[in-house]
Amino acid sequence: MNLLKTVFLIGIVSFSASTYAQFTDQINSNRPGNSAGAFSVGKKVLQLEGGLNYIHEAHDVLNYKANGFAIDLTGRYGVWREQFEVSVDLQYQMDKYTSNLIKNSRGGLRQTTIGAKYLFYDPYKKGPDKPNIYSWKANKKFKWKTLIPAVSAYVGGNYVMENDFSIPGESAFSPKVMVIAQNHFQGKWVLVTNLIADKIASINSSFGYILTLTYGINEKWSAMFENRGIKGDYYSDGILTLGATHLLKNNLQVDVSINKNIKTTPELLYGGIGCSWRFDKKHKDPKMKDGKEVKEDKKDKKKNGVLSDEELEEAAKKAEKDKKKNKDSEEEEIEKPVEEKKKRLDDFEEGKE
Protein backbone atom coordinates (compact mmCIF):
# COMPACT_ATOMS: atom_id res chain seq x y z
CA MET A 1 0.00 0.00 0.00
CA ASN A 2 2.76 2.45 0.98
CA LEU A 3 4.75 1.48 -2.12
CA LEU A 4 1.81 2.26 -4.39
CA LYS A 5 1.34 5.65 -2.70
CA THR A 6 5.03 6.47 -3.12
CA VAL A 7 5.07 5.53 -6.80
CA PHE A 8 1.89 7.51 -7.37
CA LEU A 9 3.31 10.67 -5.77
CA ILE A 10 6.56 10.37 -7.72
CA GLY A 11 4.55 10.16 -10.92
CA ILE A 12 2.66 13.35 -10.09
CA VAL A 13 5.73 15.50 -9.45
CA SER A 14 7.65 14.23 -12.48
CA PHE A 15 5.64 16.14 -15.12
CA SER A 16 7.13 18.62 -17.57
CA ALA A 17 5.04 20.79 -19.88
CA SER A 18 4.89 20.38 -23.63
CA THR A 19 2.47 20.38 -26.55
CA TYR A 20 1.68 17.93 -29.30
CA ALA A 21 -0.85 17.31 -32.04
CA GLN A 22 -3.05 14.45 -30.84
CA PHE A 23 -5.10 13.56 -33.90
CA THR A 24 -4.02 10.51 -35.91
CA ASP A 25 -5.21 9.16 -39.25
CA GLN A 26 -6.55 6.02 -37.55
CA ILE A 27 -8.74 5.76 -34.48
CA ASN A 28 -6.91 5.65 -31.14
CA SER A 29 -9.06 3.68 -28.70
CA ASN A 30 -8.56 2.58 -25.08
CA ARG A 31 -10.44 -0.65 -25.72
CA PRO A 32 -10.44 -3.53 -25.06
CA GLY A 33 -8.28 -3.01 -21.96
CA ASN A 34 -9.04 -1.13 -18.77
CA SER A 35 -6.18 1.36 -19.06
CA ALA A 36 -6.29 4.87 -20.52
CA GLY A 37 -3.77 5.97 -23.13
CA ALA A 38 -1.77 9.16 -22.73
CA PHE A 39 -3.07 10.82 -25.90
CA SER A 40 -6.40 12.54 -26.39
CA VAL A 41 -8.72 12.09 -29.37
CA GLY A 42 -8.04 15.56 -30.82
CA LYS A 43 -9.83 18.90 -30.74
CA LYS A 44 -13.51 18.80 -31.82
CA VAL A 45 -13.37 15.01 -32.15
CA LEU A 46 -16.04 12.83 -30.55
CA GLN A 47 -15.25 9.18 -29.88
CA LEU A 48 -17.59 6.52 -28.49
CA GLU A 49 -16.22 3.28 -27.05
CA GLY A 50 -18.60 0.58 -25.85
CA GLY A 51 -18.94 -3.11 -25.26
CA LEU A 52 -21.11 -5.98 -24.08
CA ASN A 53 -19.65 -8.46 -21.57
CA TYR A 54 -20.79 -11.71 -20.01
CA ILE A 55 -19.99 -11.76 -16.28
CA HIS A 56 -19.52 -14.69 -13.91
CA GLU A 57 -18.86 -14.03 -10.22
CA ALA A 58 -18.58 -16.55 -7.38
CA HIS A 59 -17.44 -16.32 -3.75
CA ASP A 60 -16.00 -19.33 -1.88
CA VAL A 61 -16.53 -17.91 1.61
CA LEU A 62 -19.88 -16.12 1.23
CA ASN A 63 -21.07 -18.93 -1.03
CA TYR A 64 -22.86 -16.94 -3.71
CA LYS A 65 -22.90 -16.80 -7.50
CA ALA A 66 -23.86 -14.08 -9.94
CA ASN A 67 -24.19 -14.45 -13.69
CA GLY A 68 -25.28 -11.81 -16.13
CA PHE A 69 -24.26 -9.09 -18.56
CA ALA A 70 -22.65 -5.68 -18.40
CA ILE A 71 -22.81 -2.85 -20.91
CA ASP A 72 -20.05 -0.27 -20.75
CA LEU A 73 -19.89 3.00 -22.66
CA THR A 74 -17.21 5.69 -22.76
CA GLY A 75 -17.63 9.04 -24.48
CA ARG A 76 -14.51 11.12 -25.21
CA TYR A 77 -14.45 14.63 -26.67
CA GLY A 78 -11.51 16.90 -27.44
CA VAL A 79 -11.92 20.54 -26.39
CA TRP A 80 -9.79 23.64 -25.93
CA ARG A 81 -6.53 22.18 -27.22
CA GLU A 82 -5.31 19.08 -29.04
CA GLN A 83 -3.89 17.72 -25.77
CA PHE A 84 -7.10 18.02 -23.74
CA GLU A 85 -10.18 15.82 -23.61
CA VAL A 86 -13.19 15.32 -21.37
CA SER A 87 -14.79 11.92 -20.89
CA VAL A 88 -17.63 10.07 -19.24
CA ASP A 89 -17.51 6.37 -18.31
CA LEU A 90 -20.68 4.38 -17.66
CA GLN A 91 -21.24 0.72 -16.80
CA TYR A 92 -24.65 -0.89 -16.44
CA GLN A 93 -24.87 -4.42 -15.06
CA MET A 94 -27.76 -6.86 -14.87
CA ASP A 95 -27.41 -10.33 -13.39
CA LYS A 96 -29.00 -13.09 -11.33
CA TYR A 97 -27.63 -13.34 -7.80
CA THR A 98 -27.95 -16.70 -6.05
CA SER A 99 -26.93 -17.72 -2.51
CA ASN A 100 -28.15 -20.21 0.09
CA LEU A 101 -30.84 -17.79 1.26
CA ILE A 102 -31.42 -15.36 -1.61
CA LYS A 103 -32.26 -15.49 -5.28
CA ASN A 104 -32.47 -12.07 -6.81
CA SER A 105 -32.33 -10.33 -10.19
CA ARG A 106 -30.14 -7.26 -9.96
CA GLY A 107 -29.68 -4.28 -12.24
CA GLY A 108 -28.25 -0.77 -12.14
CA LEU A 109 -25.39 1.56 -12.96
CA ARG A 110 -22.25 0.14 -11.41
CA GLN A 111 -19.95 2.94 -12.54
CA THR A 112 -20.44 6.60 -13.42
CA THR A 113 -17.24 8.60 -13.80
CA ILE A 114 -16.70 12.01 -15.38
CA GLY A 115 -13.25 13.49 -15.86
CA ALA A 116 -10.67 15.26 -18.00
CA LYS A 117 -7.20 14.35 -19.29
CA TYR A 118 -4.30 16.50 -20.47
CA LEU A 119 -1.03 15.49 -22.14
CA PHE A 120 1.91 17.22 -20.44
CA TYR A 121 4.88 15.64 -22.19
CA ASP A 122 5.59 13.77 -25.40
CA PRO A 123 9.15 12.81 -26.40
CA TYR A 124 8.10 12.70 -30.06
CA LYS A 125 6.45 16.12 -30.16
CA LYS A 126 8.66 17.09 -33.12
CA GLY A 127 7.88 13.88 -34.97
CA PRO A 128 9.63 10.49 -35.17
CA ASP A 129 13.36 10.20 -35.69
CA LYS A 130 14.48 10.27 -39.32
CA PRO A 131 16.00 7.03 -40.63
CA ASN A 132 19.73 6.82 -41.23
CA ILE A 133 20.06 6.22 -44.98
CA TYR A 134 23.72 5.24 -44.61
CA SER A 135 23.46 2.58 -41.89
CA TRP A 136 21.01 -0.31 -41.57
CA LYS A 137 22.59 -1.18 -38.22
CA ALA A 138 21.98 2.33 -36.86
CA ASN A 139 18.29 2.07 -37.74
CA LYS A 140 17.90 -1.30 -36.03
CA LYS A 141 19.83 -0.68 -32.83
CA PHE A 142 18.00 -0.01 -29.57
CA LYS A 143 17.12 3.64 -29.00
CA TRP A 144 17.20 4.75 -25.38
CA LYS A 145 14.71 7.48 -26.24
CA THR A 146 11.96 4.86 -26.42
CA LEU A 147 12.25 4.41 -22.65
CA ILE A 148 11.00 7.98 -22.16
CA PRO A 149 7.19 7.87 -22.13
CA ALA A 150 4.54 10.36 -23.08
CA VAL A 151 2.95 11.52 -19.82
CA SER A 152 -0.53 12.81 -19.10
CA ALA A 153 -2.77 13.32 -16.06
CA TYR A 154 -6.43 12.55 -15.45
CA VAL A 155 -8.69 14.14 -12.84
CA GLY A 156 -12.29 13.09 -12.39
CA GLY A 157 -15.07 12.14 -10.05
CA ASN A 158 -17.18 9.06 -9.33
CA TYR A 159 -20.91 9.35 -8.79
CA VAL A 160 -22.56 6.41 -7.01
CA MET A 161 -26.29 5.76 -7.25
CA GLU A 162 -28.05 3.71 -4.61
CA ASN A 163 -28.86 0.37 -6.22
CA ASP A 164 -28.10 -3.34 -5.90
CA PHE A 165 -24.37 -2.78 -6.47
CA SER A 166 -23.73 0.19 -4.16
CA ILE A 167 -22.01 -0.30 -0.80
CA PRO A 168 -23.85 0.82 2.36
CA GLY A 169 -22.32 4.04 3.65
CA GLU A 170 -20.41 4.71 0.43
CA SER A 171 -19.97 8.37 -0.53
CA ALA A 172 -22.19 9.52 -3.37
CA PHE A 173 -19.27 11.46 -4.88
CA SER A 174 -15.56 10.68 -4.69
CA PRO A 175 -12.52 11.98 -6.62
CA LYS A 176 -10.34 9.96 -8.95
CA VAL A 177 -6.85 10.91 -10.16
CA MET A 178 -4.52 9.08 -12.49
CA VAL A 179 -1.02 9.40 -13.93
CA ILE A 180 -0.68 7.95 -17.44
CA ALA A 181 2.53 6.99 -19.25
CA GLN A 182 2.79 5.60 -22.78
CA ASN A 183 5.90 4.15 -24.44
CA HIS A 184 6.27 3.40 -28.14
CA PHE A 185 9.07 0.90 -28.53
CA GLN A 186 10.86 -0.06 -31.73
CA GLY A 187 8.84 -2.37 -33.87
CA LYS A 188 5.14 -2.59 -33.08
CA TRP A 189 5.10 -2.62 -29.27
CA VAL A 190 3.28 -0.09 -27.09
CA LEU A 191 3.27 -0.05 -23.28
CA VAL A 192 0.67 1.94 -21.33
CA THR A 193 1.05 2.44 -17.58
CA ASN A 194 -1.64 3.85 -15.29
CA LEU A 195 -1.13 4.76 -11.62
CA ILE A 196 -4.53 5.30 -10.03
CA ALA A 197 -6.00 6.69 -6.83
CA ASP A 198 -9.72 5.91 -6.97
CA LYS A 199 -12.70 6.84 -4.80
CA ILE A 200 -10.49 9.01 -2.61
CA ALA A 201 -11.80 9.61 0.95
CA SER A 202 -14.51 6.98 0.47
CA ILE A 203 -14.83 3.81 2.58
CA ASN A 204 -13.79 1.76 -0.45
CA SER A 205 -10.92 3.97 -1.63
CA SER A 206 -8.10 2.20 -3.42
CA PHE A 207 -4.74 2.61 -5.09
CA GLY A 208 -3.81 0.62 -8.14
CA TYR A 209 -1.92 0.20 -11.37
CA ILE A 210 -2.63 -1.03 -14.89
CA LEU A 211 0.04 -2.25 -17.31
CA THR A 212 -1.13 -2.79 -20.89
CA LEU A 213 1.19 -4.19 -23.56
CA THR A 214 -0.03 -4.02 -27.16
CA TYR A 215 1.50 -5.55 -30.27
CA GLY A 216 0.53 -4.52 -33.80
CA ILE A 217 0.28 -7.72 -35.82
CA ASN A 218 -0.38 -5.89 -39.09
CA GLU A 219 -2.23 -2.81 -40.33
CA LYS A 220 -5.61 -4.24 -39.32
CA TRP A 221 -5.00 -6.51 -36.32
CA SER A 222 -3.41 -6.01 -32.91
CA ALA A 223 -3.23 -8.05 -29.70
CA MET A 224 -2.92 -6.95 -26.08
CA PHE A 225 -2.11 -8.31 -22.63
CA GLU A 226 -2.95 -6.45 -19.45
CA ASN A 227 -2.15 -6.76 -15.76
CA ARG A 228 -4.26 -4.78 -13.30
CA GLY A 229 -3.65 -4.51 -9.57
CA ILE A 230 -6.00 -3.04 -6.94
CA LYS A 231 -5.13 -2.42 -3.29
CA GLY A 232 -7.74 -1.14 -0.85
CA ASP A 233 -9.18 -1.71 2.60
CA TYR A 234 -12.49 -2.88 1.15
CA TYR A 235 -11.30 -4.73 -1.95
CA SER A 236 -7.94 -5.89 -3.33
CA ASP A 237 -7.31 -8.03 -6.38
CA GLY A 238 -5.29 -8.73 -9.48
CA ILE A 239 -6.92 -9.02 -12.91
CA LEU A 240 -5.41 -10.33 -16.15
CA THR A 241 -6.81 -9.45 -19.58
CA LEU A 242 -6.24 -10.82 -23.08
CA GLY A 243 -7.70 -9.07 -26.09
CA ALA A 244 -7.52 -8.34 -29.80
CA THR A 245 -8.71 -5.53 -32.06
CA HIS A 246 -9.54 -5.28 -35.74
CA LEU A 247 -9.63 -2.03 -37.70
CA LEU A 248 -12.63 -1.94 -40.04
CA LYS A 249 -12.14 1.67 -41.15
CA ASN A 250 -9.87 4.49 -40.09
CA ASN A 251 -12.59 5.66 -37.71
CA LEU A 252 -14.11 2.30 -36.73
CA GLN A 253 -12.64 -0.54 -34.66
CA VAL A 254 -14.04 -3.76 -33.16
CA ASP A 255 -12.54 -5.80 -30.33
CA VAL A 256 -12.84 -8.96 -28.25
CA SER A 257 -11.43 -9.66 -24.77
CA ILE A 258 -11.49 -12.00 -21.78
CA ASN A 259 -10.68 -11.10 -18.14
CA LYS A 260 -9.84 -13.31 -15.14
CA ASN A 261 -8.82 -12.38 -11.61
CA ILE A 262 -6.42 -14.26 -9.32
CA LYS A 263 -8.69 -14.62 -6.27
CA THR A 264 -11.62 -16.81 -5.31
CA THR A 265 -13.13 -14.29 -2.87
CA PRO A 266 -14.67 -13.40 -5.23
CA GLU A 267 -13.75 -15.23 -8.42
CA LEU A 268 -14.35 -13.10 -11.52
CA LEU A 269 -14.54 -14.13 -15.15
CA TYR A 270 -15.89 -11.86 -17.84
CA GLY A 271 -15.42 -11.30 -21.52
CA GLY A 272 -17.15 -9.96 -24.55
CA ILE A 273 -17.05 -7.81 -27.66
CA GLY A 274 -16.85 -4.09 -28.23
CA CYS A 275 -16.65 -1.29 -30.75
CA SER A 276 -15.00 2.14 -31.00
CA TRP A 277 -16.28 4.81 -33.38
CA ARG A 278 -14.72 8.21 -34.05
CA PHE A 279 -16.54 11.27 -35.43
CA ASP A 280 -13.93 13.71 -36.73
CA LYS A 281 -15.53 15.82 -39.49
CA LYS A 282 -15.10 19.03 -37.47
CA HIS A 283 -11.45 18.42 -36.70
CA LYS A 284 -8.79 20.63 -38.27
CA ASP A 285 -5.09 19.85 -38.14
CA PRO A 286 -3.36 22.53 -36.06
CA LYS A 287 -0.45 24.55 -37.38
CA MET A 288 2.75 23.29 -35.76
CA LYS A 289 6.09 25.04 -35.31
CA ASP A 290 9.06 23.41 -33.54
CA GLY A 291 6.73 20.77 -32.12
CA LYS A 292 4.33 23.37 -30.71
CA GLU A 293 0.85 24.35 -31.74
CA VAL A 294 0.56 27.96 -32.92
CA LYS A 295 -2.47 30.03 -33.80
CA GLU A 296 -2.75 31.12 -37.40
CA ASP A 297 -3.40 34.83 -37.85
CA LYS A 298 -6.31 35.80 -40.10
CA LYS A 299 -4.16 38.50 -41.70
CA ASP A 300 -1.59 35.87 -42.64
CA LYS A 301 -4.32 33.76 -44.20
CA LYS A 302 -5.45 36.62 -46.45
CA LYS A 303 -1.88 37.55 -47.21
CA ASN A 304 -1.05 34.02 -48.29
CA GLY A 305 -4.28 33.74 -50.26
CA VAL A 306 -5.61 30.96 -48.03
CA LEU A 307 -9.18 31.24 -46.79
CA SER A 308 -10.76 29.41 -43.89
CA ASP A 309 -13.81 27.17 -44.33
CA GLU A 310 -16.05 29.91 -42.90
CA GLU A 311 -14.66 32.47 -45.35
CA LEU A 312 -15.08 30.08 -48.28
CA GLU A 313 -18.68 29.37 -47.28
CA GLU A 314 -19.42 33.08 -46.98
CA ALA A 315 -17.86 33.76 -50.38
CA ALA A 316 -19.95 30.97 -51.95
CA LYS A 317 -23.16 32.43 -50.49
CA LYS A 318 -22.27 35.88 -51.80
CA ALA A 319 -21.53 34.50 -55.27
CA GLU A 320 -24.86 32.67 -55.32
CA LYS A 321 -26.66 35.83 -54.25
CA ASP A 322 -24.96 37.89 -56.97
CA LYS A 323 -25.80 35.24 -59.55
CA LYS A 324 -29.46 35.34 -58.60
CA LYS A 325 -29.48 39.13 -58.69
CA ASN A 326 -27.93 39.19 -62.17
CA LYS A 327 -30.47 36.63 -63.38
CA ASP A 328 -33.36 38.77 -62.13
CA SER A 329 -31.88 41.83 -63.87
CA GLU A 330 -31.61 39.94 -67.16
CA GLU A 331 -35.24 38.83 -66.92
CA GLU A 332 -36.33 42.42 -66.27
CA GLU A 333 -34.42 43.63 -69.33
CA ILE A 334 -36.12 40.97 -71.48
CA GLU A 335 -39.60 41.73 -70.12
CA LYS A 336 -39.26 45.52 -70.48
CA PRO A 337 -39.20 45.70 -74.36
CA VAL A 338 -42.12 43.26 -74.51
CA GLU A 339 -44.20 45.46 -72.23
CA GLU A 340 -43.32 48.61 -74.23
CA LYS A 341 -44.30 46.93 -77.49
CA LYS A 342 -47.60 45.81 -76.00
CA LYS A 343 -48.29 49.34 -74.79
CA ARG A 344 -47.66 50.81 -78.25
CA LEU A 345 -50.07 48.29 -79.78
CA ASP A 346 -52.73 49.23 -77.25
CA ASP A 347 -52.25 52.95 -78.02
CA PHE A 348 -52.49 52.25 -81.76
CA GLU A 349 -55.74 50.34 -81.34
CA GLU A 350 -57.23 53.16 -79.28
CA GLY A 351 -56.25 55.78 -81.92
CA LYS A 352 -57.74 53.66 -84.67
CA GLU A 353 -61.06 53.55 -82.91
UniProtKB/TrEMBL annotation:
InterPro entries given in the database record:
FApF
Task: Give the transmembrane region(s).
Answer: none
Positions of the UniProt region annotated as Disordered: 283-353
Bias (Basic and acidic residues): 283-299, 314-328, 335-353
Recite the UniProt keywords alphabetically.
Signal
Q: Which residues form the signal peptide?
A: 1-21
Pfam family of the protein (one)? Phenol_MetA_deg
Which protein are we looking at?
A: Transporter
